[in-house]
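Title: Prediction job returns without error message
Component: structure pipeline
Severity: low
Priority: P3
Assignee: unassigned

Description:
Job completed but the reporter wants confirmation the result is attached to the right record. Sequence as submitted:
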Amino acid sequence: VDFVREIGGWLRSCGAAESWGAMSLITVQLGQAGNQIGVEFFDVLARTSSTSHSELPHRFFRHSRSSKAVYARAVVADLEPKVIAATRARATASGRWAYAPDAHYCQQRGAGNNWANGYTNSGDACTEILARVRREVERCSDFAGFLVLMSVAGGTGSGLGTKVSESLRDAFPNAFIVNLVVWPYSTGEVLVQNYNAILSLSHLYQTSDAVLLVQNDDLHAICTKMLHLKTITFEHLNTVVASQLAAAFASASDIDYTANPPMVGREGQLSDMISLLCPHPDYKLLTLRSVPQMPDEYRAYTTYQWPRLLRPLHQMAAAHYPCEEGIKWRSTAGAAAVEANPCIANLLILRGSELSDADVAAFADPGQYVPWSHERFALWADPRPLAHEKAACILTNCKAAARPIDDVVGKAWQMFSSKAFIHQYARYGVAEDAFVNSFVRMEQVVKAYNSLSLS
C-alpha cells in the first residue's frame, strides 16, 4: 500500500483537505514581537495553504458572516498604537486575509520596559482584551485552546502578556494554553531583561499548559549560518519563528509508524500535543527545531530527500543546537549528546510527499528517553507542503531546555543582590519578596530538569 496515497485518501475522505482541521485555535498576539510574529505566522499559512480564499485553514481562519472577508482567529494587543496599526495594515494588504475589525486593542503609552508596569497597570487592558477573546471563542464551532505570542525582554509582552495569560486561565479554566515565549539575547537587549524574563516565566509556569521557549540567540544563528544574512533585525528573527510555528501547528494526522504499512489515525489536536509533551506539571518547557533552513533563492535548486532532512534534525534535537551548520557530530559525540540531554517526549511532524521514505527509527529509539516517560514519541504527518516540498520539525521536551533559564536566573540574582533597578518595580507595587519568590520558583524548575536522567 502506498503510504502517500493512503494518507491523502484519508484526508480527502474526512474533508480535511478543505478545512485543514475543525478544532480552532485562538492566537493572542501581545506586544511588538508577538504581533510581528503573529502577522507573519498567518501570512505563511495563507500563502502556502491554497490559491482559494475558501480553502484557508479553518483551524486559524474564519469567514465573515456578513461579507466575503476572511479573518484570522486572533486578537492583537499592544500598549502603543503604532504596532497595532502596522500589523493590521500588513494583514489587509495581503489581499487574502485580515484581522477582524473588533479584534484589536491598544493604548497610547507603553510599559517602559518594566514588567511591573505592564502587569499591575493592565486591569482595563485585560478586561478589554478578554472581551475580544470571548467574541472570537464564541465564533468557533469547536474550540481547542489558545496560542499566546509574546516576548519577555521588555515591559508590554512580558508584563501584559503574563497578566493576559492569567486572565485567560481564569476565564477559560478548561482550555489549553500554549505560550510562545521569545527569550532575549544573552548579550542583552534591555537592562532589566533578566528581571522581566524570570518574573514572566515564573507566573506563566503556573497558568500555561506548555511554554514554547524560542531563544533570540538561536534565531540569530539560523539567520547567520543558514540564511546567510549580513545585517540581522528583529523582523528577520520573527520571520524565522513564524515559519517554524506554522510547521508545528498547521494540521497533521497522527501516524502509527510501527504498523506495516503505517496507519493513518485522526488529526492531531492541541490536547494530544500537550498530553504527549508535557505529562508532568514540573516539565512544561518545549523547544522547536525545523529543517530545511535555507535562503528563499535556494529552494528552486534544492533536491529534497527525507534521509537528508531527518538525520541533521535528529542531531540538532539531541545536541540542542538550532541549525545543522556548526554541529560537531561523530558517533561517540552523538552518544554523549543523547546521554547529556535526555528527553521526556518528542513530537515529530513531517510535511510533503514520499512520506513512506521517511525513516523515523532514530527519533523513536527508547534509549534517549527518561525511563518514567511512558508515551515518549509520536509522529504526525501531512502530504501537503508548507514552504518547502518536504519539511520536518520536532517539538521536544528535554533536559537542555532549562539551560537559558539557569543562566538568566543567575544574572537576575546578581542584579538583585546589588538592588539594581528594584525601585522601578516597587513604584508599581512589586516588592522584593516577589522577586525572590520568582527566582526560587524558576530555580526549582531548573533543578527538576537537571535531575532528568536516562537511568
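Comment from assignee: result matches the submitted record. Residues 8-21 have pLDDT under 50 and may be disordered.
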